[in-house]
């Protein structure tokens, strides 16, 4: 068990902001029997503020398996700015169930294959979620150099308040899709239609939406 753990992101550019995560209590339980089969199985129990993150992560020659559940997670205490490009407030719920197999390349090297991945992700904010703080600009990370240069200064976003948020993602047979998205708000209406044809390398996957 570790207590009072502080983590900080490491900026790579002068304009990057440092994000800090404070974990009150981190419990790690390693199963030794899987180690005899060449696999590492770790049970996690993490306390972040009033929230808790629990789950199992198994890494073996065959692939990676992740089962994680989070409840009462304060988004202000998580690196949401790095994930979505904006500060966020509200209490989050998270469920991740993912199997990510490895495949052997011609060189004999084992690499993760997203094309063979299966699983689901659920993210919810039951009430009172906000995106933006009225002054922070939305900054996205884009592959295309011209697009990235165009958006380098950020986009004026303001502040959006949601009555609630529910998003579900399914991954199977080489396909990733947002199967459910609800975000009622007095500030506007948001609909998301997102699909991805997965390639062995996630970065090479094709997005439609």
Quick synopsis:
The protein is built from 3 helices and 15 strands.
Keywords:
single chain, 209 residues, mainly beta, 12-stranded antiparallel beta sheet, 3-stranded antiparallel beta sheet, 3 helices, 7% helix, 50% strand, globular
Q: Compute the gyration radius: what is it?
A: 19 Å
- The number of distinct β-strands equals 15
Structural class: mainly beta
What quaternary form is this? single chain
Helix percentage range: under 10%
The average pLDDT is 87
Secondary-structure element pattern, one letter each:
EEHEEEHEEEEEHEEEEE
List the helices and strands and how they pair.
Blueprint: E1 2-8, E2 20-31, H1 33-36, E3 40-48, E4 51-59, E5 63-74, H2 80-84, E6 88-89, E7 91-104, E8 110-112, E9 118-125, E10 129-131, H3 145-150, E11 160-162, E12 165-172, E13 175-182, E14 195-197, E15 206-208
Antiparallel strand pairs: 1-2, 2-3, 3-4, 4-5, 5-7, 6-10, 7-8, 7-9, 9-12, 10-11, 12-13, 13-14, 14-15
